[in-house]
Amino acid sequence: MFTRRSAAIAAAILLSSPALLQGASAADKPTDPQIAHIAYTAGVIDINAAKQAKKKAQNKDVKAFAEDMLRDHEAVNKQALALVKKLNVTPEDNDTSKALSKQASDKLTELDKLDGAAFDKAYVANEVAYHKAVNGALETQLIPSANNAELKSLLQTGLKIFQGHQQHAEHVAAELK
Amino acid sequence: MMPERLPSIAIALVLAAMVAPAHAETIVITMENLVISPADASARIGDTIEWINKDVFAHTATAKNGDFDVTLPPNKSATSVLTKAGAVDYYCRFHPNMKATLKVAP
Ligand SMILES: [Cu+2]
Questions:
Q1: Where are any strands of DSSP class E within chain B?
Q2: Rounded to an integer, what distance in angstroms lies between the CA atom of residue A64 and that of residue A140?
Q3: pLDDT at position A28
Q4: Domain encompassing residue A133
Q5: Which residues does chain A have within 8 Å of residue B95's beta carbon, measured at their own beta carbons?
Q6: In chain A, N or C: fewer CB atoms in 10 Å?
Q7: A138 domain-assigned
Q8: Could you tell me the domains of chain B?
Q9: Dihedral sign (CA A24, A26, A27, A33)
């Protein structure tokens, strides 16, 4: 299998280049249909967390924050759906999406056991951590990997929205103390 | 009848001119893709700010010193008339990374 062997060598050369070693390896680079799936899943996760908080939160700022998350993430996901339709791209499930969903459902179960001020605090703390993690993934992996210009631009808007949410969550967290 | 009425109309017009500042302007501040522009705007007391939200997200223009707090639903605009001088830092309550300054001259 000469061709396969040279392909393997080419991959090895690519992987050993310093620029690639700094970031994620080429094999980890998600495709546009996978990126679309990851971004949409990330939004759905925060929508579900907000729905739980709307029911359980006590503090009025926490309740208002949950409303804001619901409204913004639904708006982003509506745009994402319109874009994949326009581009004729079918979002593709992948390990990153699966891992995100699994973590999120564990978190929902964990938070469900809490009530009152304990719930408020844990929800907001998780919102800070979650938005931070998503922002990191957007900046270092999803945005640089996106091929389509419109998808890239939607992810960039998404990053600004998520950064705003992170700061907003940090403000709410500071007031709860 | 007519000659007596004319002076009072004239006075009313003069008063109206005095109440409305001579150079009142409308300054447009836009929010698009979570960016406020211009980030540094200048105006005078009596001017009107027209806030235009071009995003599908709701934003606010909230003054740090409490001078104003305008809520802008998605793709909507609003106006506020400036009544106080000073440099006001403002931000969006929903996305505090959206920040800008409005300088109001007396
Ligand atoms: Cu905003």
A1: 26-32, 35-37, 40-44, 48-53, 59-63, 69-72, 77-81, 86-91, 99-105
A2: 30
A3: 72
A4: 2-14+32-176
A5: 160-161, 163-165, 167-168
A6: C
A7: yes
A8: 24-105 (2.60.40.420)
A9: positive
Q: Does B45 touch chain A (CB under 8 A)?
A: no
Residue A23 included in any domain: no
* Longest alpha-carbon distance in chain B: 64
Domain count of the fold of chain A: 1
Inter-chain contact B33–A160, Cβ cutoff 8 Å? yes
Burial of A163 (0-12, 13-18, 19+ CB in 10 A): buried
Beta strand B77-81 pairing with B48-53: antiparallel
Is the predicted ipTM greater than 0.95, yes or no? no
| pLDDT single digits (tens) B23-78 | 789 999 999 999 999 999 999 999 999 999 999 999 999 999 999 999 999 999 99
Top residue of A153, A160, A170, A171 to mutate, by most chain B CBs within 10 Å, is A160
pTM (2 decimals)? 0.79
- Angle subtended by helix axes A116-137 and A60-87, to nearest 10: 30
- Per-residue pLDDT at A122: 97
Q: Is a pLDDT exceeding 80 seen at residue B9?
A: no
CATH code for position A97: 1.20.1260.10
> Looking at the domain assignment, is residue A21 inside a domain?
no
pLDDT score recorded for residue A102 = 95
The verdict on B73 touching A (C-beta cutoff 8 Å) is: no
